[in-house]
Amino acid sequence: MIRITGGKFKKKRIQSISQFVRPTSSLKREAVFSIVQSYCIKNNYDLFENKIILDLFAGIGTIGLEGISRGFANVIFYENNRKVLKILEKNCETLCSKNQYKIIEENIILSNFTIDFKNISLIYIDPPYEKYNLNRLLLILSKKIAEKSIIITETSINDVYVVPEKLKLFNKKRYGRTNINFLTLF
User: How many CB atoms lie under 10 A from the CB of residue 130?
Assistant: First the structure.
């Protein structure tokens, strides 16, 4: 079982599935939210108030549910594996009220995102390692996100992508075979 690391649901357990997913570790989740919160404080940006976290390649929902626990008003999950979706739905029902989350069953790599990005302040992208090229996805998101929104990618150290012109890298961390990049509009 996986536990939420911070906020009102700290230490609450969420279900996992042994195949198809690689949940973000508690160490990485703590670091990610610490870096983002510090960045937002320095830049006078309210990350949480009436804001939405967008969890792409959501898996069992670890990042989005961590975000809800830490103060995001809502979460939108994108996941397309039917077996994983069942676990994600159970985890959402355990920690969220029905109006706090939305699950979209769609292939992210082919998506054009018909959702409203106005209140999305954080986008977390955690694809299966070394399987997808994120160039198209990042380009689409760079044209849709609101000012000051943050995009975080969690990828293998072997995954390479181009940061679109509209985005800038403001932080980068490496954890073993994982790179975590923090991007925003400039």
Answer: 11
* DSSP-derived 3-state class of residue 52: strand
d(CA 171, CA 139): 19
Domains of the chain from N-terminus onward: 2-185 (3.40.50.150)
pTM for this prediction: 0.95
> Amino acid letter at 68?
I
Q: How far apart are CA 45 and CA 31, in angstroms?
A: 19
pLDDT, one tens digit for every residue, the chain (186 residues): 799 999 999 999 999 987 778 888 899 999 999 999 999 999 999 999 999 999 999 999 999 999 999 999 999 999 999 999 999 999 999 999 999 999 999 999 888 899 999 999 999 999 988 888 999 999 999 999 999 999 999 999 999 999 999 999 999 999 999 999 999 987
Q: Following DSSP, what letter does each residue of 121-141 receive, concatenated?
A: EEEEE-PPTTT---HHHHHHH
Query: Residue 157 has what DSSP assignment?
Result: T
